[in-house]
Amino acid sequence: MLITVSGPAGSGKSTLAQSLADALGYDHVSGGDIFRSLAEERDVSLVELNQLAETDDQIDRDLDQRLRSIARDEDDLVLESRLAGWMAGDYADLKLWLDAPLDVRATRIADREDKAVAAAKEETRTRAESEALRYREYYGIDIEDRSIYDLAVNTARWDEAGVLDLITSAVDAYDPDGDEGKAPTAGVAYEF
């Protein structure tokens, strides 16, 4: 089974994806892992690759192409990134969207990165706006469109263990034989 975990920064994607993979005995691949491998291949630091990505859209496209290839080729996997559900498309068995109110996400990011909540909030808002424009420009994706996801969860309502319990219950209850149809990811231009 291929499960994607998507959502904005600070929503709990990485935390859930790793915990879910561990609980299911699956592998876990994150967009961050792929980004790190791209930096390594180019012999640059993560900061340098981020700076390059601001002017070179091929970096984002290379990352997304790898997400799509992994989704096509792998099984028993939890694939995690903001666009994992979109990039996996019909290859995914279950597509999850995690979210939380901006104030909650900014507080999580501020704690994780040891910065002021106000700064984390502004950076998060700016980043989300920039990413939304790029996703629409590159692939015709409206990141606000949740119709492709099988389950959307507000992670501010449960603690980490509660979110994991909720998701593992959904995964355990999933029966491919009773599946009456995936939500399609139509209209995406997979042009890398």
Helices and strands, with pairings:
Blueprint: E1 2-6, H1 13-24, E2 27-30, H2 31-42, H3 46-53, H4 57-73, E3 77-80, H5 84-88, E4 94-99, H6 102-113, H7 117-139, E5 151-154, H8 160-173
Parallel strand pairs: 1-3, 1-4, 2-3, 4-5
Helix pairs in contact: 1-8, 2-4, 6-7
CATH C-level class is Alpha Beta
Shape: globular
Helices, by number, come to 8
Name the helix and strand elements from N-terminus to C-terminus, one letter apiece. EHEHHHEHEHHEH
Strand arrangement across the biggest beta sheet: 2-3-1-4-5
Structural class: alpha/beta
Q: β content, as a range?
A: 5-15%
| CATH superfamily caption | P-loop containing nucleotide triphosphate hydrolases
Number of strands: 5
CATH fold node name: Rossmann fold
End-to-end CA span: 25 Å
Largest sheet: 5 strands, parallel
Q: Unreliable runs, pLDDT <50, ≥5 residues?
A: none
How helical, in percent, are the residues? 40-55%
Radius of gyration: 16 Å
**Number of folding domains?**
1
Query: Could you tell me the mean pLDDT?
Result: 94
Please tell me the CATH architecture by its name: 3-Layer(aba) Sandwich
Keywords for this structure?
single chain; 192 residues; alpha/beta; Rossmann fold; 5-stranded parallel β-sheet; 8 helices; 5 strands; globular
Give a brief rundown of this model.
This protein is α/β, with parallel strands linked by helices and about 190 residues long. The protein contains 8 helices and 5 strands, in the order E-H-E-H-H-H-E-H-E-H-H-E-H. The protein has a single domain, classed as Rossmann fold, CATH 3.40.50.300.
